[in-house]
Design a protein that fits this description.
Number of helices: 5
Number of domains: 2
Distance between the termini: 74 Å
Low-confidence stretches: 25-41
Helix content: 40-55%
Radius of gyration: 26 Å
Shape: globular
Structural class: alpha/beta
CATH class of the largest domain: Alpha Beta
CATH architecture of the largest domain: 3-Layer(aba) Sandwich
CATH superfamily of the largest domain: Periplasmic binding protein-like II
Length: 175
Amino acid sequence: MACSSRRPSPSKDAMARPATFCLRFAMAVITLAGATLSFAQTAQDVAVIVHPKNTVDNLTMADLAKIFRGERQYWRSNLPVLVLLRSSGSHEREVLLRNVFHMTESEYKQYWVSKIMRAEATSPPTDLYSNGMAKEGVASIPGSIACISAADLRPGVKVVRINGHLPGEPGYPLH
């Protein structure tokens, strides 16, 4: 039996394997990075939710502003609107203050004091301390509306499109 110190030359197929592996690995990393960025955007999005039996599927930003400012008090079905709002300092509230109210927290509080003093409202929106409380309230009160983190969405509530877009879609305005 003869021994050879020479290695057999690799076939073209064997040489292509590492390159194919590297290419596939790079594609997987890019795909995961894109999914992670997409999830990060969705996680920062704030979803508008209503009771599942509410007939509203889409609201414009102007509609949303009227509802959350107490200017629209009834749904089209004559069901009273009950606004449930996350408490001061929450991401959801900050998004609403910036994108819907166009106010600071102190301006928002003053807005509601003035509205109550002019007898245009009896109270400001109900403050809730968690997304879980908001989901429970919306799931159990037919006329309610709230905003929660899109990452916290679960069955039992209906997500409303804003300007025709759902959280996570390009063009969604609440993040």
